[in-house]
Amino acid sequence: MHRLVTRAAPYLYAVLRIIGALLYVCHGAQKLFGLFGGVRGGTVPLLSLLGLAAVMELGAGLLIAGGVLTRPAAFLASGEMAFAYWLSHAPRDFWPIRNGGEVAVLYCFLFLYIAGQGAGPWSVAQVGNTLHRAVPLRTVRPSPSGVRPWRVHHIISLVEYAFSLRLI
Hints:
mainly alpha; 2 domains; 69% helix
């Protein structure tokens, strides 16, 4: 059993990351677009604190779910949830169970954990790493003398550099 759980752990983490982020996106969509009943039956003004929160929830949630810029997006989302807790819930009562802030606290620590772990499997970042390993970098054959033409040499060097930075 331990071996099975150990082998499945990265994929269970990916499910946690994707489902948690998509639920977070729902909160942003609720505020921005009025989906899922909206906020008091409507939307929030875009140029307000709740509007900024909605944009952050929608944007960061989509990035985290897709596994793109996962660490910074999760760190931003974690900070937003901590801010939301202290701004909206803590003034009512300190304990989350009594002030309705347990979801904000849970999101805060979930995204802090994701910021520490990174994208993991089933992410765009992982697909990029797989392509990087699968595609040979040197597809241009060197000239018979062993010296590459100037432009080809620099293009290949730039592509190798981009791969090393994981831009491609």
